[in-house]
Amino acid sequence: MDYIARRSDLPDEEIQWMLGLGEQRALRPGDAFCRIGQTHHEVGLLQSGILQVYSVSQRGEKVVLDLILPGHFALALHGVSRGLPSDVCIEAVTPCTVIAWPYELRRAAFARHPGWLRLDARLVEDAFNRKHRRYMGLRVLTAEERYDRMLSELPGIWQLLPQYLIASYLAITPQYLSRLKRRQQARQDDRAKGPGIPA
């Protein structure tokens, strides 16, 4: 619950109250925290592992929209904000541990302490900023720039992800991902060799 403590001004007893109402779940790779079409919405705090957020295109292809790392929340934000069924699936990529709460619990939390309302606003702001950054990256950056950003923002993490998932996350083909990896490796090899000795 360190994330809540850092992002809020809530007293410890309020955080412990919320923690006591959470359900800890262990997810295996491929297990869904939230399914497309789900109407019973939940909020999850990822403690360990990696979750992917994806939708399905009209051609039936999985489109990876986001990755959720430990310490961050999992929520079908579009569905809950409009009272609609979820239009995304949130699924474990690696073994995960998640603390889950019913989304409607937020009303009881708001009535208990104003700090929960302020935290809710910050979480929505964080989610919006993350989505905006993701959108701008897809629209403005080249595939190679997106790949370099992923390497810098997810050091070590990306090595745990299947290649097809990384390619979908970067909005490129697996073949082009292989090409980018070879370029990256070539750059690393050149740096390791250092400057050549002039003749």
From TrEMBL:
Stretches assigned to the Cyclic nucleotide-binding domain: 25-111
Domain of life: Bacteria
Signal peptide: none
InterPro entries recorded: cNMP-bd_dom, cNMP-bd_dom_sf, RmlC-like_jellyroll
Protein name: Crp/Fnr family transcriptional regulator
Provenance organism: Roseomonas acroporae
